Each structure stands twice: as structure tokens, then as C-alpha cells.
Amino acid sequence: MTTKDSAGTDGTPPAGGPATEIEAGIRLDFREEMSYGDYLHLDELLGAQHPRSKPAAHDELLFIIQHQTSELWLKLLLHELMGARDGLRADDVGLALKRLARVKGILHTLTDQWTILATLTPSEYLSFRDSLASSSGFQSFQYRAVEFMLGNKNARMLQMFEQDRTAHATLTDLLNSPTLYDEFLAYLSRHGHPVPASATGRDVTEAHTFIPELVDIFKVIYDAPAENWSLYETCEALVDVEDAFQFWRFRHLKTVERMIGGKVGTGGSSGAAFLRKALDRTFFPELYSVRTALD
């Protein structure tokens, strides 16, 4: 006969019973070994949250962690976009697609994070908003770097980062480098597609603008996906990335509207109105226009 405190027949402890013994091989002494915390520099990471509100507002920690984790994801997002660009440059479409799949996953995670920030009510946010002073997400150099990589370039943005040498150097390099889309168009050109010189020889420091001839090239690919599968798949992967990026922008807009309504942003932008205008921008206009051209 067994009691509720007895172990199961497979040797596992009953629900609510005592914890299992620590296995003999598990390391417990890290005086001379690298620990999990050492590897991740958790002392620095967990010590990087410094609320500024006085008296301390309970909800400021949520706001700080939300934006710090977003910056970590943006770092990885930029890393993967660069990797995808390198894959296309090396004619390795499979590698590029692998990295774009990860880009989409990162963007979905960033979008989901807005759900947590949306639990911040207007009164809770106003309890510490003044502590932000003139700081704003608009000043994120990594967000600007992602936009540069995707084709939305603006040299005037560099002025905002003149005081940060690392950020300024990163953005200057990306401003003067081909975008992900530039490398895809160069790949198409190398593989026999009639990409016009206005695309392959364009000034890469400028934002990409619509090139009608590209729609004709993409129409050939979309009209026969089986015969052009890797190109067709890459086109759709780029559209997936833009789609995911726009969902992230949209959730940002709706979260801002929920928290501050039509107030001006802390960094001086028009706030929600500015974010709404960003939804009209597209990185790969020809990949959207080709859908209208298909029979």
C-alpha cells in the first residue's frame, strides 16, 4: 500500500514532494571555473537598470528593461541582416535564407514585447515620463542601422550621433555600403537577369527609390516559381521581413497611442503622428508592385 508521500514506480518524487538530489557530476564550486553568470556578464547586465524617477516609480523598471532588451534584439537583428547580405554577396542563397528566417523570428519577438509595455497605463507612464528628459527611442542608433541596412537611408541622421563615435562610425559605414536589397539585385544581375544600371550602379548613400524595370524582372520570376524557386523564395523572404518589420512599427504606434495619445514625443517628434507616417514607407517597393502586374 502506498501513501501520497511515496515515490512513483519510476522513482520520481510525487507532486509536491521533496526536490531531487543534486546529481554528483553537477559543478557547485566556481572559484576557479567560469560560471553561467560569468559567461553572460550578468553582474553588468542586471546592474544596468538605473531608474531616475523620484520618488521611485514602480513601473519605470518595466520601461527600462523593455527598451534594453529591444536593443539586444536589435543587435542580433543587425548581425543577421549583415550575414544575409554577406550570403547574397557570396552567391550563397541558402545561407541568406537561413539568416532571413532568423531575422523574421527576431522581429516577431520584438513585436510581441509591445504587449508587455502596453500593460503600462497612461497614469503609470506619466509617473516617471519626466525622468526621460529628452531621451527617446528615436535616438536608437541600432534601429537606424537596421533601417539603413534595409534601404531607408538618410545622411542627416548621422548628425544625431556625432557625440557617440562608435554609433557614428557604424552608421557611416552602413550609409556607404550596399543594402540587403542592393546585394539581391546584384545577385540577380550576376545570374543573367537584366537589372538596369540605375539599380546596380546607384548611389548607395541614398534611399532606394522605385525602379519600374525591376517589376518586369520579378514578374518573370513570379510567373514561373517552380523554374525560379530559389529566387522566388528569396523574394518572398524579403517581403516577409518587411511585413514583420511593419507589424513591429504598427504595434509601436498603437502602444504609444495607448500610453500618451497625441502628445509630442520626448525626443521632439510629433509622437504617434510621426510613427503613423513611417507605416507608408516601404523597403522593397518593386516586390509589392509585382503583385499588381501578375495575371
Tag the structure with descriptive keywords.
disordered N terminus; mainly alpha; 295 residues
Poorly predicted sequence stretches spanning 5 or more consecutive residues? 1-6
Oligomer: single chain
Count of DSSP H/I helices: 13
- Largest sheet descriptor: none
Derived structural class:
mainly alpha
- The overall average pLDDT, rounded, is 92
Q: How many individual β-strands?
A: 0
Rg, Cα atoms, Å: 25 Å
Share of residues in strands? under 5%
Morphology call: globular
Instruction: Give the H and E element order.
Output: HHHHHHHHHHHHH
Q: What proportion of the residues is helical, as a percent range?
A: 55-70%
Description:
- The chain is mainly α and 295 residues long.
- The protein contains 13 helices and no strands.
- It has helices at residues 36-40, 42-45, 60-89, 93-117, 122-126, 141-150, 165-175, 180-190, 197-200, 212-223, 229-260, 272-278, 285-293.
- Helix 6 (141-150) packs parallel to helix 7 (165-175) and helix 11 (229-260) runs antiparallel to helix 12.
- The longest helix has 32 residues, at 229-260.
- The radius of gyration is 25 Å and the shape is globular.
- Mean pLDDT is 92; it is low at 1-6.
Protein topology:
Blueprint: H1 36-40, H2 42-45, H3 60-89, H4 93-117, H5 122-126, H6 141-150, H7 165-175, H8 180-190, H9 197-200, H10 212-223, H11 229-260, H12 272-278, H13 285-293
Helix pairs in contact: 3-4, 3-6, 3-8, 4-11, 6-7, 10-13, 11-12
